[in-house]
Amino acid sequence: MIIKIASSVRFIRASWVLAREGVISALPAEELTGLPSLGYWIAGLVARRKSRKANRSERISQAMNKLGPFYVKLGQFLATRPDIVGRDVASDLSMLQDRIKTFPTYAAITQIESSLNHRINDLFVKFGEPIAAASIAQVHPAWIRKDDGSMRKVAVKVIRPGLKQAFARDFKSLLLIANVAEQRVPSVRRLQPVNVLENLQQITRLEMDMRLEAAALSEMADNTAGDPGFRVPKIDWEYTGRNVLTMEWVDGIKILDKNALTIAGYNLNKIATTLMQSFLRHTLHDGFFHADMHPGNLFVDRGGSVVAVDFGIMGRLGKKEKRFFAEILYGFIQRDYRRISEIHFEAGYVPRYHDIASFAQANRAIGEPIHGQSVESISMSRLLALLFEITELFDMQIRPELLLLQKTMMVVEGVARSLDPKFNMWKAAEPVIGEWIIKNQGPSGFAKDINEGIKVFSDLVRRTPELIVRFDEITEGLQNISINGLHFDDDTIKRLANMQAQQKRSDHYALWIIAFCCIAIIFRLYPDLISYIGLGQTFHGQR
Fold this sequence. Notes:
The protein is α+β, with helices and mostly antiparallel strands. Helix content is 64%, strand content 8%. The protein starts with a helix and ends with a helix. The C terminus is likely disordered.
């Protein structure tokens, strides 16, 4: 009970900050009625005057950074889920940048020494002050002495002290409210807030272990070993642990510093083409892509190669998703709307009770206007966004990995167009997509599918005795249930009843605590509100 009260208080604080920064009053409210509508009105009253003049993305950024790392990460995660927060809000959240202050160097040293079990002076010849900080970690420059006595500069990424405990506390408070909302509010239930938070928890768990980020970086390095014009930093595994990641220092020019790139003699169109083709190659060939390719994570080194850093957020696509993505883009390039429709049905994304021809007609409504535009103005990410909007009419459930892909593509397109406003997205993409189609959908792809099918069948044959035994056990169990029914012993029934009753009481307590605290805060800050809504006269009349 104490834990739930503490979680409720933390949630109230978060709601108060969101209201004061004008975030709640900036959200769409056309469909709100009853108590939610009243809450929206109150949130507008308590918003700071300064926040009312800012646009919504600035309000969100200000509030999330005030609330701390967990909420910054929550906002960045929801930016990839327009199916939950809506496309406009997701677009604002995508502009959310970490503005978290750096933590002291001595705290970083403590983290490093406890993680690597060595004194800092035994690890590095020199360890510098932080040069960048984000919600999860901050980066320090350091120098290591090589075997030949020379010095090598490295980047050391260190987890924030106490981060895991802080994330756990904020997660519990949001999970409490999400559980109550999912049980009590039918309109919220379809958004599956509990599932959304659990997905975020899993992602942040991976991000908060630097060894896993190092593994992602290593995998990307293997995948891109033969890529022309693209590479990732090398890892120093000896200086990497749970709370610290050490890698090659990237001595390059930031990718959006066009003046510096031009002075250095680089071809901006070539860099844009390399970036786009590399991203598509990682997505289609490897099914593993960097999902946080904003300009701050991209550099151009002395050899003209694009170098990506910060591998905390990665995306994966399975075979079905890769095929879906490639054939969708290729279908729009070739104006084959029937094939685009068929691939949706073959992938199982659109229910079979819909008509393929009608869906092809909807795809034509997206594709034809695009083909009437100049190639410089066509956006693949915008095309996918329009496609996802159309598919909602056909009951398609958008998969999170496809939304993450679309969001990342939007960022990559933005960087490419910033380098060259006349950049031809389709011309750059067609060779990579066409190569994948030929390789995977042609004779070689057919032979590969047959080979995989034979392997699956062989595995099934080897496991046949085991499957037969399991089938017999399941059949016997079902027969017993059909004859004797499904029974619980008395102790089990009592425990289930007590758990349900306790959960209901806790939910009621949490709701009352939240409501009471909100009202108390509002009346404390706005005493004139009592007389404004007529409560003052009622109290005086009773006296």
